Amino acid sequence: MRDRLLIRSAACIAVVLLFSFGLCAWAQTPSPAAPVVQAAPAMDAPLNVQAAQPPSTADLAKGDPGGTMTGTINDISVSDSKKGLTLADALNQVGQNKIAINFTWTLITGFLVMFMQAGFALVETGLCRAKNANHTMMMNFMVYSFGLFAYWVCGFAIQMGGAGPIANLGGTIPLSAEHVFTVLGKPWGLFGSHGFFLSQAGTYDVGVMVIFLFQMVFMDTALTIVTGSAAERWKFAAFAVSSIFMGAITYPLFANWAWGGGWLSQLGANFGLGHGYADFAGSGVVHAVGGITALAVSMIIGPRIGKYNRDGSPNAMPGHDIVIVLAGCFILAFGWFGFNPGSTLGASGNGALRIGSVAVNTMLAGCTGSFGAIIYMWIRYGKPDASMTGNGLLAGLVAITAPSGFVNTIGSVIIGLIAGVLVCLSVEFFDRVVRVDDPVGAISVHGVNGIWGVISVGLFADGRSNYGGSWNGVSGSVRGLFYGDPGQLVAQLIGVATLVGFVFAFSYIANLVIDVVVGQRVSAEDELEGLDIPEMGALGYPEFVLKPEAHGVASASYASGD
Amino acid sequence: MKIVGLLLIIAGWIVAVVGPLITPSTSGRMALALIGIALSIFGILGVLNKAHLKHALWKG
User: Fold this and answer.
1) What is the predicted pLDDT for the residue at B7?
2) DSSP calls for A364-384
3) If chain A, 562 residues long, is cut into consecutive pieces of 10 residues, what is the mean pLDDT of each piece?
4) How many domains does chain B have?
5) How many contacts does A have with B, using Cβ atoms within 8 A?
């Protein structure tokens, strides 16, 4: 009985002890912490700079070979020196750094594109005969000035005057006036009207200046395409008027429709056609506009004397310097790294880190473009033709310009390879079938392959790009037919129809008027002599002896040589 | 002939552009865009260029 009592007592003590320990353990289990409400630091309250342990003046005086002490909290600008550094100062510096990165990126890539003018000048001059070297070089030189002036006066306002804010460049809010007309309840943007002389309607603005420079060098690229196809017979005065008109009106109109918030870019938002006409860096806007205008001008001017026999068969009229042609191609390929990756308009924010992908796509398409051309020429003619290989490189680069921001590397390789073969077929087609004389192959390189580039967006865009979550006001990524969006291909085809329908007709009529007023073609005597003396007053190569050949074709040799 | 060529070129563009306004079907819009492009190219190369070549220098 006593034992049972003891056992019961021990059991009770054990239960009590266990309960007590359990209670203590439960009491010590941390309860879900109540949210601690901390007051947000005031934006204008001074920050404790010393907590960030910035390097002292004594440390900095020793030098910073490792670069670990340069660029610290000490370098943030303060808005009020009495108050010292505040959170607002720090955050403003973050925002300004992002825009500074994007400004620097866009300006430097714009400078690269500007340098492409030198590449075009070398390619076109090298592919022409020596007796026209000064004239061809001068057209390429002056197209920069003529185009720039026209674009500053009104071209930029027409193209970008209603483009709206560009987030990567800090807003560009003043570009807010797009003329729109409405058809069946849908708005159709036609042209912008802010930015004439870069001084009207608030466009004296740092962001506007950056986008002006970048868009201006693109416009100039389009203009210089025409000088190649019309070379060796184009009157310099007519070239000047034609280039100013193109820089002021033709190019800006189409560029507005594609890039300035115009109706082509809105085909997605208005009609559900993918993301609207998508042209990342300008296969259509720059190259096809240039190539199609080149076709219009070449048709009006007609072929060079000696290009065709009476039966319509063509004669080869080789250029005078393949060395500068291929050097020019390399300069162009280098400049293209500004053309395509620069079209992100920044390297920070809104998917701009895709610049690496854009650059690799660009180099791959150029590579396979030259492959396509060299293989075609080698098989067809038994020799790897140098000028066509150069044109193949350029064709690949032209074709990848529109899709470079939307496709993967497999797509870019295919696009470039097709472009390389296409340029050879197209040169033969225009030379032999259509009989449009194009000394440098500009219509094929830029016109035909520009159109191929526009179409290839509608086929190969893989839906993996993301530039701020939307494109042309349609959320999501651009996706082509092979990745499930046939509507995108329709938008691209409407863009192509606008290029061959509107841009050609507009350029043709404008240049026909110039032909009537100024006269587009030089006299037969001047053409046979070479345009350097009659048009420019000086030979490109005064120490060369130019030998007249049949049909007035001249070849060059050194005075001391044969 | 030059005017006929120009009219064909512009007509091709208009056919492609009005496609989205007259049909909601993607196939229909694609067909109209392709017809428009073909019409414009025919106008450029088949009509306008032929008119220019009629009086080409090398034929004289």
Assistant:
1) 97
2) HHHHHHHHHHHHHHHHHHSS-
3) 54 51 48 63 83 88 90 90 90 94 97 97 96 96 97 97 91 89 89 93 92 97 96 97 97 97 96 96 97 97 94 92 96 97 93 94 97 96 94 98 97 98 97 95 97 98 90 94 97 98 97 96 94 93 72 41 34
4) 1
5) 99
Contact A236, A138 (CB under 8 A): yes
Domains of chain A and CATH, by start? 96-536 (1.10.3430.10)
Q: Which of B20, B44, B49 sits opposite A273 (nearest CB)?
A: B20
Give residue A562's pLDDT: 36
- A494/B30 CB distance under 8 A: no
Q: Are A339 and A388 in contact (CB under 8 A)?
A: no
Structural domain containing residue B39: 2-59
Is the ipTM higher than 0.90? The answer is yes
Inspect the interface and report whether the beta carbons of B48 and A508 lie closer than 8 Å: yes
Q: B49 contacts in A (CB within 8 Å)?
A: 299, 434-436
Phi, psi values for residue A208, rounded to 5°: -65, -40
Nearest to A154 by CA among A198, A189, A188, A114: A198
Which of A186, A489, A502 is facing B13, going by the closest CB pair? A502
pLDDT in tens, B2-60: 999 999 999 999 999 999 999 999 999 999 999 999 999 999 999 999 999 998 877 77
B4: closest chain A residue by CA: A505
Place of tokens 């308009």: A345
Contact A270, A227 (CB under 8 A): no
Q: Does B51 touch chain A (CB under 8 A)?
A: no
Cβ within 8 Å, pair B49-A504: no
Q: Smallest Cβ distance to A303: which of B16, B41, B57?
A: B57
A498-544 pLDDT, tens digit per residue, is 999 999 999 999 999 999 999 999 999 999 999 999 999 999 998 87
**Nearest residue of chain A to residue B60 (CA atoms):** A310
Interface of A with B (CB under 8 A): 183-184, 186, 267, 270-271, 273, 295, 299-300, 302-303, 305, 307-310, 312, 434-436, 486-487, 489-490, 493-494, 496-498, 500-502, 504-505, 508-509
Sign of CA dihedral A140, A395, A104, A203: positive
Both tokens of residue B46?
């088949």
Q: DSSP secondary structure string, A177-246?
A: -EEEEEETTEEEEEEE-S-GGGTSTT---HHHHHHHHHHHHHHHHHHHHHHHHTTTTB-HHHHHHHHHHI
Q: Which amino acid is at A4?
A: R
Q: How far is B26 from chain A (nearest CA, A)?
A: 6
Q: Which residue has the tokens 């004289």?
A: B60
CA geometry: angle A263, A264, A270, nearest 5 deg:
65
State the greatest distance between any 2 C-alpha atoms of chain A, in Å, as a whole number. 142
